[in-house]
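Quick one, tokens below:
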């Protein structure tokens, strides 16, 4: 089955999701995925209790022991896995997040601070991206859950934190906090932060001993998201009021989708010959995204209907 990865460079108002797929972690937990720009993310918090080589990630409950760690560990909010694991997953320290044994599913990894920022930029900037990335409603987020639409499909949840400085758990329902792979200095690292009273996303350096949630990103070098060269594809004229010619060259037998600014598919077709006509005469005037996908590559092009 062909997989769709939609690359929306320069079109931050598009929010497009990949075709349905699931990914398994070292424990066998299954996760749905979502595409944001050029990135593929898990749309759930990580729940694994093992690294990929089978080594366990220690579950450390005692506050003093947690605060003294300089190696990987996990815990559950209020040390209550029954109430919190299935929804929020464990809280991990940064040492677990960046351990070379990798706690993300095979072929996935912890994203960097810059990669989080790129996702926010794609969604319109850090002042609004939180609303698009937070689960809508107040099933898990406390009122008012400002701006939350989850239009990106990311489904960010407010799993709270474990604070090693005060030796307590706090802010569940108010804050979603996720580790990045980016160190700030020897004792601190960058995290990503969403709040029930804010539609944006913030980034803060904090102690590597904090317990935060984890979201994993597809490593593009492993396959899905691998933008193998599709060769020369010509798309003309653009802008157009009617028909656009698409010459896929050596990339025949590919699939074409056109999305409007709300991420809705408005045209789709198979490209099978050396030259194909795309009829957009019935579409309203405006900007659209054209995405062409082969077996192991995807290209995108902004098109304008005059």
């Amino acid at each position: 089955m062909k997989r769709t990865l939609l690359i929306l460079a320069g079109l931050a108002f598009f929010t497009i999701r990949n075709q349905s797929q699931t990914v398994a972690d070292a424990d066998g937990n299954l996760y749905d995925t979502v595409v944001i720009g050029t990135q593929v993310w898990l749309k759930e918090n990580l729940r694994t209790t093992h690294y990929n080589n089978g080594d366990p990630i220690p579950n450390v409950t005692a506050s003093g022991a947690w605060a003294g760690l300089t190696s990987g560990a996990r815990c559950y909010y209020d040390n209550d896995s029954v109430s919190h694991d299935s929804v929020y997953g464990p809280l991990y320290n940064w040492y677990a997040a960046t351990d070379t044994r990798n706690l993300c599913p095979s072929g996935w990894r912890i994203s960097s601070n810059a990669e989080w920022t790129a996702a926010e930029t794609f969604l319109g900037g850090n002042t609004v991206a939180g609303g698009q990335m937070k689960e809508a409603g107040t099933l898990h987020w406390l009122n008012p859950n400002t701006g939350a639409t989850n239009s990106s499909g990311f489904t960010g949840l407010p799993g709270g934190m474990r604070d090693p400085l005060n030796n307590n758990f706090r802010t569940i329902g108010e804050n979603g906090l996720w580790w990045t792979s980016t160190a700030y200095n020897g004792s601190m690292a960058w995290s990503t932060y969403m709040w029930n009273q804010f539609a944006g996303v913030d980034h803060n350096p904090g102690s590597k001993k904090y317990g935060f949630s984890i979201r994993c990103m597809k490593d593009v070098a492993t396959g899905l998201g691998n933008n193998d060269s599709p060769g020369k594809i010509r798309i003309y004229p653009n802008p157009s009021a009617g028909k656009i010619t698409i010459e896929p060259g050596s990339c025949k037998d590919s699939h074409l989708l056109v999305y409007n600014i709300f991420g809705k598919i408005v045209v789709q077709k198979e490209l099978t010959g050396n030259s194909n006509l795309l009829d957009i005469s019935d579409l309203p005037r405006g900007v659209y995204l054209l995405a062409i996908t082969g077996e192991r590559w995807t290209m995108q092009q902004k098109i304008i209907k005059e």
